């Protein structure tokens, strides 16, 4: 199996536009089943270099609200992959480049889709990091440079790439008030499993 090359590219406003187009589809199909949709990850921070993959968190009030959301997302062309070891965050994989199915056979850019219970650690992690980087351009530039360095050092090793970002991320999260027990869990989740 050929490994994908990790690529970090300069920011483009197309990422925000793509997020809005995708979010419109999810809102239209999920309606009252969800409480919101957040553009998270590096593509959500203006000016930040990133892997060209849109990360999105769909919000639900409680875990009991997950089954009907799963059913709708499956009809849109996604496969539910479970929490992948991160409590409160359910991952969905695309079945094809046309997922979400919009009736027009649109080829969508790469994206990661998660359903998160409001207030869960994963969601707080995503939002606190995004908001901090949006408000602190110098930190965003440092993070972008780190990601470019890691992509060059580990072009085919996503585990090492992710692990290499962890200290920077947890440093920001500690600064924003996330507690040591939560930071320990985040660090463990980002450890390479070699």
From TrEMBL:
Q: What is this protein called?
A: GrpB domain, predicted nucleotidyltransferase, UPF0157 family
One Pfam family linked to the record: GrpB
- List GO molecular-function terms, semicolon-separated: transferase activity
Q: Which keywords, in A-to-Z order, does the entry hold? A: Transferase
Tell me the domain of life: Bacteria
Source organism of this protein record: Chitinophaga eiseniae
Q: Does the keyword DNA-binding apply?
A: no
Which InterPro entries did the record assign? GrpB/CoaE, NT_sf
């Amino acid at each position: 199996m050929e490994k994908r090359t990790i690529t970090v590219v300069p920011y483009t406003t197309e990422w925000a536009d793509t997020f809005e187009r995708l979010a419109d589809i999810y809102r239209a199909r999920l309606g009252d089943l969800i409480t919101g949709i957040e553009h998270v990850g590096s593509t959500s921070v203006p000016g930040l270099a990133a892997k060209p993959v849109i990360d999105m968190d769909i919000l639900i009030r409680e875990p009991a609200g997950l089954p009907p959301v799963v059913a709708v997302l499956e009809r849109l062309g996604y496969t539910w992959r479970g929490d992948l070891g991160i409590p409160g965050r359910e991952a969905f994989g695309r079945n094809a480049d046309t997922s979400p199915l919009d009736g027009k056979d649109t080829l969508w850019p790469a994206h990661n889709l998660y359903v998160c219970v409001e207030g869960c650690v994963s969601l707080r992690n995503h939002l606190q990091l995004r908001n901090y980087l949006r408000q602190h351009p110098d930190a965003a530039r440092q993070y972008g440079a780190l990601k470019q360095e890691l992509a060059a050092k580990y072009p085919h090793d996503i585990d090492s790439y992710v692990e290499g970002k962890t200290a920077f991320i947890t440093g920001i999260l500690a600064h924003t008030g996330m507690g040591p027990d939560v930071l320990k869990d985040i660090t463990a989740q980002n450890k390479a499993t070699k």
